[in-house]
Amino acid sequence: MLRELNEELGLQAMPSACRFLKQIEAPAANEPGHIVRAELFSLRWEGAVTVAAEIAEALWVTPDNALSLSLAPLTRDCVLPLWPCLS
């Protein structure tokens, strides 16, 4: 996970900064009939974010304005409801 955060967003986080939250799953956004399973972690980050590799763009949002975006079911249905626990 830390290697991917570095490659995709330029984050150089320490393992101790990551807090495991839970395993989640939801229907895949672009592959009908498939399920996406993920392990969700929390990481507070105040440094810069630089998109690279497969990432087209990064956008900071609040839980309220995130609902107006077209989000994958995993994010919309599993991650955003956990927001109060992350604060």
Outline the secondary-structure elements.
Blueprint: H1 2-9, E1 18-27, E2 35-43, H2 63-66, H3 73-79, H4 83-86
Antiparallel strand pairs: 1-2
Would you kindly provide a written description of the structure presented here, covering whatever features stand out?
With 87 residues, the protein is of the alpha+beta class. Helix content is 26%, strand content 22%. The chain has a two-stranded antiparallel sheet. The protein is globular, with a radius of gyration of 14 Å. The model has no long low-confidence stretch (mean pLDDT 90).
Labels describing this entry:
4 helices, single chain, 26% helix, 87 residues, two-stranded antiparallel ribbon, alpha+beta, globular
Main β-sheet, in a few words?
2 strands, antiparallel
Annotation, overall tally of beta strands: 2
Q: Mean pLDDT, rounded to whole units?
A: 90
- Helix tally? 4
Radius of gyration: 14 Å
Compact description:
With 87 residues, this protein is of the alpha+beta class.
